[in-house]
UniProtKB/TrEMBL annotation, chain A:
Gene3D superfamilies: 3.10.450.10. PROSITE patterns: CYSTATIN_LXN. This is Cystatin LXN-type domain-containing protein. It comes from Umbra pygmaea. GO terms for molecular function: metalloendopeptidase inhibitor activity. Belongs to the protease inhibitor I47 (latexin) family. Pfam families: LXN. The keyword Aminoacyl-tRNA synthetase does not apply. InterPro entries: CYSTATIN_LXN, Cystatin_sf, Latexin. The keyword Lipid metabolism does not apply. Residues 1-19 form the signal peptide. Keywords: Protease inhibitor, Repeat, Signal. Residues 64-163, 182-292 form the Cystatin LXN-type domain.
UniProtKB/TrEMBL annotation, chain B:
Belongs to the peptidase M14 family. GO terms for molecular function: carboxypeptidase activity; metal ion binding; metallopeptidase activity. It comes from the Eukaryota. Pfam families: Peptidase_M14. Its cofactor is Zn(2+). Residues 1-21 form the signal peptide. It comes from Umbra pygmaea (Eastern mudminnow). Residues 32-323 form the Peptidase M14 domain. The active site is at 289 (proton donor/acceptor). GO terms for biological process: proteolysis. This is Peptidase M14 domain-containing protein. PANTHER family: CARBOXYPEPTIDASE O, PROTEASE FAMILY M14 CARBOXYPEPTIDASE A,B.
Length: 292, 370
């Protein structure tokens, strides 16, 4: 009897995967509302709140100072501002960069100036997939009328990728055209777009970067969600001209913000945004009897 | 003529052999976005095709009185089973997420008979998968191009506020109304009139509370950003098993990267349903933010559905395996070890051990067992 028991145990030891054994219950410490351990998570925003009716409850942002965790939000938000800056300087219908990784970041308060960030980051061109490492310094100005952040950045290699040929072909194709081009919903609801629309999508993204850069602060993270529509206007001063309606997505508030832009571009002059107009948020609602 | 006929017959037999002529076994079904009607039909079909492992359950109602349903997937067992929870599409515009829930279900049903690990997990666990939590919002986002970016549910505003919708992921009872919310009903992160004011959030809460002792891992699937988020969002608090959460999260990120090279960052950050899940004692609680990093954003092209689902599946499976093994393997080891030492103690006390006093031997053995 005894040795039979030993034999059975031997089998059990060997066959650990046997599912007839009862699982452990309550393997992890249960956390009731009174038992949360209070410990500081480095890199997390310290958000204290004062609730006011109708306002965004996120009022007192105690900003991180010193070394920032490179993959957490504060560093990523600042790095996204650098991305917008790089697109305003170097973007085109054939060059549109996105933040890949933040390697290092730090922030400090500078008296009478504002908040200054130092960042090491990698951005990637979404068209050529070429990556480049950049160093950047940016200042979010302090004061009641917060102006646009000021950015200084330098990148290796990335921005020397040769887009000249493609840009020239595209420019020539549209500069003297008697058929002004236009498009809408780029990408569409299913993420599709015609291949001929792609350069206009990139151009919309680059043009949006001007507004996104201007509107950014330490607590925002902007991205272009869609080109609602664009129309080619008459060429002026050898610049291609477009009216764009873009949808921006702001990650912190999750808002979709509509802007109309007057955009010009040529290979020589790059992208310029001449006018911007905020569009009111549509509160148009479908009548209650929505078909199921 | 005869040749064509026989070819046709062979083809017909091959098709029938797969079960029947439904499109769901076709690979390309899972590479397209589907509206709510199609997803509901698909859920019915999953249940019909796999009656021994799949059952559907209605566990709540939306504001517009539609059913909130999940699929419960697992092999029937006489033992008490543990659970894995996954919900998709808490935010209407995140279309890649119901596509992922569908893919996840299809994948485990496809492999559970032949993959030993999945088979074992299906014996010990039930997977509770909700392909679309915010049914009203999802339907609304399919109406036309101008509704595509809808996020919230469709409950109307109250008082003087005429806008629609509450952000379901700000409505859970986990530090409600404190972090990252708005009290303006026209805002995208409007948290509702009070915690659990929304029937959709109530449905999840009540279901989780009934099951909380049995849930090993909780997943809430979102897009975009390519992140794996873990509790908590609010400052000065970390989960008691923070290190384990980070370790498992980082393991999942590595598993994701191994599939198609995509980088997913692991972060403690916001998400009230994930925080709520952790607070009621579910040990592993994660928010997944799927592709991409912003160029297409919510409008992810259909040709990216499959690679996104493949990598997310790998990430989720890493966490589920970890949760499963910790619950089942370590218990097996403990029980077996305890039995061995007890047996040793019994043998030692009954056997003749020469000059060693019996008392001494018993003491030593007791120390080992203890």
């Amino acid at each position: 009897m005894f040795w039979r028991l030993v034999f059975v145990l031997l089998i059990l030891t060997v066959d650990h995967g046997n599912s007839t054994l009862m699982p452990k219950i309550g393997t992890e410490p249960s956390v009731g509302s009174g038992q949360l351990q209070n410990s500081f998570l480095p890199g997390l925003d310290n958000l204290t709140t004062t609730a006011k009716e109708g306002e965004v409850v996120e009022v007192e942002n105690v900003m991180m100072t010193g070394v920032l965790h490179p993959s957490h939000y504060p560093a990523r938000r600042a790095a996204t501002v650098v991305q917008h800056y790089l697109n305003t300087r170097y973007g085109s219908p054939y060059r549109w960069v996105f933040l890949s990784t933040v390697h290092k970041g730090s922030a400090e308060d500078v008296t009478d100036i504002g908040r200054k960030y130092h960042l090491e980051l990698t951005v990637q061109d979404t068209i050529s997939n070429v990556s480049g490492r950049c160093s950047a310094e940016l200042v979010f100005p302090e004061g009641a009328e917060q102006g646009a952040p000021q950015v200084n950045a330098s990148c290796d290699e990335l921005l020397q990728s040769n887009t000249t040929a493609q840009e020239e072909v595209f420019y020539q194709q549209h500069i003297a055209s008697n058929n002004p081009v236009s498009g809408d919903n780029i990408p569409d609801s299913h993420g599709h777009m015609e291949p001929t629309m792609k350069p206009f999508w990139h151009l919309g993204g680059v043009a949006s970067s001007f507004i996104m850069l201007r509107e950014s602060n330490e607590s925002t993270m902007y991205n272009m969600a869609q080109v609602a529509n664009f129309t080619q206007l008459e060429t002026e001063n050898n610049q291609l001209r477009f009216q764009y309606h873009v949808l921006l997505h702001e990650m912190v508030s999750q808002e979709i913000i509509h802007w109309k832009l007057l955009v010009t571009w040529s290979p020589a002059e790059g992208v310029k945004v001449l006018q911007t107009e905020l569009q009111p948020k549509c509160h148009c609602e479908v009548p209650p009897n929505t078909t199921k | 003529m005869l040749c064509l006929g026989s070819v046709g017959l062979v083809l017909l037999m091959l098709t029938l052999q797969r079960g029947h002529l439904a499109p769901y076994s076709e690979r390309n079904y899972y590479t397209r976005y589907h509206n709510m009607t199609e997803i509901s039909e698909w859920m019915e079909q999953m249940e019909t095709e796999n009656p021994d492992v799949v059952s559907s359950l209605v566990y709540g109602q939306t504001y517009e009185k539609r059913n909130i349903s999940l699929l419960k997937i697992g092999l029937s067992s006489t033992n008490r089973k543990k659970a894995i929870w996954m919900d998709c599409c808490i935010h209407a515009r995140e279309w890649i997420t119901p596509a992922f829930c569908q893919y996840f279900v299809e994948e485990i049903l496809k492999v559970y008979k032949t993959n030993a690990k999945i088979n074992e997990m299906m014996k010990n666990l039930d997977f509770y998968v909700t392909p679309v939590l915010n049914v009203d919002g999802y339907i609304y986002s399919w109406l036309n191009e101008s509704t595509r970016m809808w996020r919230k549910n469709r409950s109307p505003g109250t008082g003087n506020c005429t806008c629609y919708g509450t952000d379901l992921n700000r409505n859970f009872n986990s530090n409600w109304g404190t972090v990252g919310v708005s009290t303006d009903c026209c805002k995208e992160i409007y948290c509702g009139t009070k915690a659990l004011s929304e029937t959709e959030a109530q449905a999840v809460t009540y279901k989780l509370e009934k099951m909380s002792g049995d849930i090993l891992a909780f997943f809430t699937i979102h897009s975009y950003s390519q992140l794996i988020l873990l509790p908590y969002a609010h400052a000065n608090i970390s989960a008691p098993n923070h290190e384990r959460l980070m370790e498992v999260g980082l393991g999942a990120a590595k598993a994701i990267k191994d599939v198609h090279g995509m980088n997913y960052t692991v972060d403690p950050a916001s998400g009230t349903s994930q925080d709520y899940a952790r607070q009621i004692g579910i040990p592993l609680s994660f928010t997944f933010e799927l592709r991409d990093k912003g160029d297409h954003a919510f409008l992810l092209p259909e040709d990216q559905i499959q690679p996104t689902c493949e990598e997310a599946y790998a990430g989720v499976q890493h966490i589920i395996s970890d949760a499963h093994d910790k619950a089942f393997y370590s218990s097996a080891a403990t029980i077996t070890a305890t039995l061995w030492t007890t047996l040793l103690a019994a043998w030692v006390t009954t056997a003749t051990v020469g000059r060693m006093g019996r008392t001494t031997v018993v003491m030593i053995t007791t120390a080992t067992v203890g």
